[in-house]
Amino acid sequence: MAAPKEKTLKNLSGKWVMNKTLSDDTDRILQMQGVGWFLRRAIALSTITLTVTEYIKDDLTHIDISQVASPGGITSTENRVLDWVYHDHSDRVFGDVKGKSRWVKLSDIDDDDFLKKGWDDMEGEHVQGYVESKGGGWTADQVWGFEIIDGKRYYVRHVVVRKGDDWKLARLVYDFQK
């Protein structure tokens, strides 16, 4: 189901399911991030569900995400504080990483046009997340927002993963479940 109007980046709480028809294939990105073939296949064949809890604590936005791939029960968590300070995290899929997140205007994003284009709100704030692998040599930069696709509004993440001189792009599209 497309995102209801009341769902915004300031109100993402709820369940979101990756729409694999509208999303780009993630296999090449996951391979670049060191995820093995068997786990990549399991992820490709699974339904990916995000359970998002967004709240304000100490004047900072927190976005806690539990991600489950079903069947298979592959889980990971993202607990983001939008303060643009590195936070360490050990992830079952991606290993040891450090990441930072913030509210950002698209005009303040350096670099990649892919991260800046296609949003239904080109002037407002978006969420930007940046992650560095501690041992894998890759980085992932992503911007979150909403896009109109085939006349419907969806929660979307634009992701750029880099490793050395190589890079991969993906647009991840999510249906609102409840």
State the gist of this model:
With 178 residues, the protein is mostly beta strands. 11% of the residues lie in helices and 53% in strands.
Query: How would you characterize the largest beta sheet?
Result: 10 strands, antiparallel
Oligomer: single chain
| Beta-strand percent range | over 45%
Number of strands: 10
Percentage of residues assigned to helices: 10-25%
> What structural class is derived from the secondary structure elements?
mainly beta
Low-confidence stretches: none
**Rough shape?**
globular
Secondary-structure element series = EHHEEEEEHEEEE
Mean pLDDT: 93
- What's the tally of helices? 3
Strand order of the largest sheet: 4-3-2-1-10-9-8-7-6-5
**Radius of gyration, rounded?**
15 Å
What is the terminal-to-terminal distance? 9 Å
Please tell me about this protein's structure.
The protein has 3 helices and 10 strands; from the N terminus they run βααβββββαββββ. It is mainly beta and 178 residues long. It is globular and about 40 Å long.
